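Record copied across here:
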Amino acid sequence: MPLPRRTLIRSTGALLGTVGAGSLLAACGGSSDSPGAANSPTPQATSGTPRKGGTLRAVFAGAGAEESLDPFGGSSPADFARNSVIYDSLFVLKEGAPEPALATAAEPAADGMSFTLRLRKDVLWHDESAFTADDVAYSFRYMSSPDRAAPSELQMYFDMQKVTVKDAHTLTVRTLQPIGDPATMLASFPAKMVKNKATDFSAKKAIGTGPYRVAAFEAGRETRLTRFDQHWGGASPADELVFSSVSDPQARVNAVRTGQADYAGDIPFSTAKAGVGGSGIAIRTAGAANRTSFAFVLNANRAPFDDPKVRRAARLAIGRTQLVETVLLGYGAQGNDLFCKGARYFSEARPLKRDLDEARRLVKEAGADGAKVVARSAEYETGYNDSTKLFVQQLREIGLDAQEQVVSIAEFFDPKALAEVNSVTFSSSPLPLPVMYGRLAAYPSFTLPDKEFQGALKEAMAATTDEKRRTAWAKAQDVMADRGNTVVWGLADILSLARTNVAGIEVHDQAKYPYLGKAGLA
């Protein structure tokens, strides 16, 4: 089921990590060494324990007037981070695995064609009314409505319009294909719960079950949230959260430097490399398990990459060290051509070593010497275009007639254009494997038309036990590592800037949009 273009754009915004790479020219003009000890970020997880009380001020990239308190309406980092503490999900991702939130269990039927969803009891909405199964059924219908600009991708897997409410805390959900681990799917997409019949998400009407409720909201500027003491997970540390929306990364850095904010998400690598200066502030990293995979996805349905020999040649041509040092400025590590390092069941296959002679031999053996290759890119994330330039140069070295096709962000995911090119620059946070490969399979330009791979993917999606899932995912990734179409060259750090007394920031779904429900000042 191909995704509608607007759905792909929005979902890609959710799965991509804005990693803040410096420009290629700036990188080439300076040192290409790995970050020195003086500029090495500190782990977010070691930030300490927050005290009770006070106001935590956070600044994220926003979307101006496009921002929304509708959890299925906004698509900027500010929207995602803010709405994650207003609304709760049924499950959340922690360290790559689903963890119960509003739901306590999602029990699949033996054939995987339905599951029973069991809800947490004694959960209250911000107006202190009870959260029930009717709210979940409505939320499913609301998020998947065809009237939405970007309907939920869960509708690719679940029959969202035909949910059976069994009692106040139990529902049955039918699936459209065998799904053995529905909790992972529910945790992986923006499936925030909204109140039954809710249509108004203005500041006075936006009601969630999250640890904070809305006090004031001005799209593109500032949101003030106050603690909801009746939250099912316990009262949060800070009395108040203040979110500011600032698109310019340097302005976000300056907000922390000058004391206007305590925390800023998405810090450019070039800023980290230069050092932020000032006392009482530090660059932080979400850690190796939360890095963003940077890649080129080869169109295996179009020559010359329909030939596995040429796909392997492209992977052998990649100068991974050069890309990591030049594009990521050393803030990261080499990739092994597989997406989602840090996720459950990820294969730690060794990356191919660069071998131009073998790559040239494979290209000639496939009869692809001089074949035209168009590599499509847009500066959707900083570093896309710079990495594409280097990729094109490296493909030329092995005998391919490669050229870059740089377009605007608005044009980037046009389905017809994607089908006509040979490579698309792409990236992803460490999403669960079924989400990542399901998303790639939804677009013909991104999928791998390999029967063994498709069979393993189907097995992995339907498996109801950990052992079966592990075996199927190992098989699928073995194929991808051997003759796949994803060239994951680098793993980029997710950097932030914080005052040293900021504590309790967690990664639930994605590190780029940290969870501040347990955060505060130490």
